[in-house]
Amino acid sequence: MEATVRETVEQKPERLLDRQVIDDQEAVTAAATVGKPFVEAPKMAMRNVNVFYGEKQAIFDVSMDIGSNEVVSMIGPSGCGKSTFLRALNRMNDTIEGCWIEGSLQLEGQDIYDPKLDVVPLRARVGMVFQKPNPFPKSIYDNVAYGPRIHGLVDRRADLDEVVETSLQRAGLWNEVKDRLAQPGTGLSGGQQQRLCIARTIAVSPEVILMDEPCSALDPIATAKIEELIAELSENFTIAIVTHSMQQAARVSSRTAYFHLGKLIEVNDTEKVFTNPEHELTEAYITGRFG
Amino acid sequence: MNKNTQRTIDLVNRNLAKRYRAEKRFRFYGLLSISFGLLCLVLLFTDIIGKGHSAFLQTYVALDVHFDADVLGIDNIDDETQLTVANYDGVIRKALLERFSDVRSRRDKRQLYALVSNGAGFDLQDVFRERPEQWLGKTETLWLLADDDVDTYVKSRTASGEAFTGRLSENQQRWVEALIADERIEKRFNTIFFTSGDSREPELAGIRGAIMGSLFTLMVTLVLSFPIGVAAAVYLEEYAPKNKWTDLIEVNINNLAAVPSIIFGLLGLAIFINFFEMPRSIPLVGGIVLTLMTLPTIIISSRASIKAVPPSIREAALGIGASKMQMILHHVLPLAMPGMLTGAIIGMAQALGETAPLLMIGMVAFIVDIPGGATDPATVLPVQIFLWSDSPERAFVERTSAAIMVLLAFLIVMNTLAVWLRKRLERRW
Amino acid sequence: MDTSTLLAVTAALTALAYVIGRGRSLSQAANVGGIRNLNSLPFYYGMLTALWCGLPALALLILWVIFDEPIIHALVIDSLPEQMRQLSGSELGLLINSVENIAAGNSAAMGVDPHLQAASERLISLREASRQALVVVVLCGGLLFGIFGWARVRPQLKARVQVETTFKLALLLCSCIAIVTTLGIVLSVLFESLRFFQTVSFFDFIFGLDWSPQMAIRADQVGSSGAFGAVPLFVGTLLISAIAMLVAVPTGLMAAIYLSEYAGRRLRAVVKPLLEVLAGIPTVVYGFFAALTVAPMIRDNGAVLGLDVSSESALAAGLVMGVMIIPFVSSLSDDVINAVPQSLRDGSFGLGATRSETIRQVVIPAALPGIVGGVLLAVSRAIGETMIVVMAAGLAANLTANPLESVTTVTVQIVTLLVGDQEFDSPKTLSAFALGLMLFVVTLTLNYIALHVVRKYREQYE
Known about the structure:
The complex is a heterotrimer of chains A (about 290), B (about 425) and C (about 450).
Chain A lengths: L1 H10 L1 H5 L1 H4 L2 H6 L3 E2 L6 E12 L2 E12 L3 E5 L6 H7 L10 E9 L2 E2 L7 H7 E4 L10 H12 L5 H14 L3 H4 L12 H13 L5 E5 L7 H14 L4 E5 L3 H7 L2 E6 L2 E7 H6 L4 H7 L5
Parallel strand pairs in A: 1-11, 4-9, 4-10, 7-8, 8-9
Antiparallel strand pairs in A: 2-3, 2-5, 5-6, 10-11
Helix pairs in contact in A: 7-8, 7-10, 8-10, 10-11
Chain B lengths: L1 H51 L4 E10 L2 H4 L7 H6 L2 H12 L6 H8 L6 H11 L1 H4 L3 E7 L2 H9 L13 H12 L3 E5 L2 H4 L12 H32 L4 H15 L2 H15 L7 H25 L3 H9 L4 H30 L2 H5 L20 H9 L4 H32 L4
Antiparallel strand pairs in B: 1-2, 1-3
Chain C lengths: L2 H30 L9 H38 L2 H4 L3 H15 L10 H39 L6 H17 L1 H23 L2 H6 L3 E2 L14 E2 L2 H32 L2 H16 L2 H22 L9 H26 L2 H9 L4 H30 L2 H6 L17 H9 L8 H35 L1
Antiparallel strand pairs in C: 1-2
Helix pairs in contact in C: 1-2, 1-5, 2-5, 2-6, 4-5, 7-17, 9-12, 9-14, 10-12, 11-12, 12-14, 13-14, 14-17, 16-17
């Protein structure tokens, strides 16, 4: 099945690169994922995932794995569903009215959409960093301490201090803010705010961190710092990052997934995706023919 | 690391039950608050309706009235004066005495006469004067208005025979029971309540005067506040330069919207009554005071609906060479009109329910006559409610509640109209 | 011709001016080769002529109505004999009153001072003359200015610009009414208060602990010397407002939270308007409910518990006032809670917070300035609320913090002092204005702070 589809794709390359086909929902939906979407002993395993917003389907039959301690980046043109898919991974779509999900999503073998499963511990295990830095209107300290506090992770003030300090250090923010922990987090610069949000997330010690275009609101220098940070964090955390920038995907991730019109087109080692993509659409996208 | 994360999730799970209990509690508080609010609403309405519904019926007593020319003092039925001054009360008294022939003492007689309302004589006069030649000297069974104490007694009478006696003496109760046994007591729809003005006698008191007073007051308010409010809104949205003066106007409008209404009453008293020496108790002054009070509401809502007209419409008008005034009159105002009307209706509803400022300018007087214009002394519906609520008679309690029901009905109609107007006419851009 | 007929005639004259002004511009257009050669459309020429006719007539009418009475009075006084004119201001006022009474035919014809009788006849004739002169002056004024405006109509006249300038000025005038109103409030309340503070010292008023405003009518009357210490009123007002806020703030806030964060769309669509009904009910209805249902209920329940509850307890008034303010608090809180960006909620949910944790620790702190602003507005509302307390709270100025006792409030006293006939020179009447001044200053300050806080809050998230 997979092979035949790929064949048809190869047979008519000019047709696929035709504007019409790029926008043709049916043709894209009919395509199958190429590359190596699956890994051994995955941290998270998604199979045949469909996401709907009311009547509108946003994600079509996506299957892929995320391995332990790897950085997977998700790229694709705007509206391709990469953020929607990411938000499905820790059930953040629950907060959107009229959104529902089909298929199986598992975290270490456990179905995360099991009606009996509790989203609170799930989100403690799968944390999220958002597109726009969203520090709470509290002090820097309270922002980072928020997660440990609500989850009751520490009992003593000294332990909490330690968690805050380590988290800020790992987020590379400690040196900049250690003298003004009591000041509001909203007073930091954009890049600092985003690192604060990352520190806030890692303070809970999640197993997976989802990042939804974490640098889209930042300048290049702040972006570089976040990217460095992602590289460091990948030693301890599994990271899935949605990004609009192909360069960023190339720099930070080990595997890259390409989404198009809600369909997962290709998943491959990042190097392969950017040097020798298997699918015409991927190639067209990374060479900048649309997007 | 793995060990560490394992520890995290264990810690999270350890506290989960407690956190969910807190969640449930919090949710419960929310539900409790809403239920409390709704409960108060239900309680208020059931209380008012429970107290007031009986006022829409009025007790009447059937008596065999003999139109005796001697008692009436009429010897020439074509003489209008004689017909006017005739002793109709005497006829009623005689009818009562005939019905209860065992009543002898003066005290008892007075008590007996008190069963029928003071106003019954006037009703009798109206009946009689329609066909004096036919009625004179005849005996007719007529339904006469009962006194309020009898009315209260009859209405509160339960199947087991218990009733609120109030000021009724034992004798009077006995007589009323006898009349009931004869089926000579009947409850009919209370037209008096809707057709007459205020009275000291509950059974003769009605809300017509107050409703007319409210109507004239609201007319003055509407005529003044709507054009002025719209004009002010147009100026602020379309012309006003961004400067200190405009800021001052805006701050003033917003503040005035939150100033206690009684302050407007003080303003009316000091400026209109004391300084300009306008008469007290008239809808004109009341309307002016309420205009000042509702203007901020109308300005604010008119501004919102002018703001909602998209700039592209203005640009289109200006682009083909319309002047600013033409742009406003031809395009902006017609498009913003539904929103402005909605705001005006809501402002009027507010003014209709307002009491305190009108107390200040003397609209609390006891006025029996039904006002015929904006310069006749009058009271308004909420003030009438306030006045009646102070009266000790139990019959006034039900009338107060009934007046409240009428007031609320008006308000509900106005607000429904506003909602309907908004849904029906307002355009979404 | 009475004033309303005169107004109608003036309006008709104005309409006529429009027609002939427009007609003149049309006939002139024919001379210069069509309407396109006029400076403005004929409509504007008509409007301009109408303005020239109507505005002066209206101005004359208003001036006349304001000034005719004082002038007539002055003329009548001038006609009085010498010794009567020497009287002081207030005595002259009384004199004029009796002249008015004679003129209105209210006084017995017998035993009237012939001078006053003559004066009253003069008054009547002057009034009649004034009425007739008014008609002549207004109509002639309108006509003259209208003809002037009509004569100005020529093709070069920039009628449109002039009409639009007038239009703009009229709008500006209307928008200034808000300022005039505030000024009117300040001046009227301040002026009467100053007169009050001439007899009673400001500090006695602000810090005095005794309030009994009944003044002796005769100098030798006992027991009512009049004391104007307003502290018991302030305490009573605060007590009732505090009870109201204790009911309204938690309930309103929680209701808003539940409706905006938990309730489904359908529940919200039903419950929200129902709660708003509570806000639309006139205060006199709440007052009736408080006085006839809630207060007796509380008193009877108190009696069961062995408590001595006044039938005009602060508790009853406060409770009902609280219920009235619930929708006010909840709709203001609803607004500010909805203004909190979704990204903050997402941030909290993303960390695994439960809904209530998110609300309590992120949403509420973020919305706090707005909520505080809303609560301040609600407090201002409670302090200024009149009918509920007039009907359900007492008149006796008890200095107590016990909610089961009867207290009185600033607004209750204002109403009690000013309902009925007042003499504007007794401290009793004037004290109501001093209380009004306090009320105005306090509520204005609260409103100003609240509106400022709320505006700053909104700007933060815009």
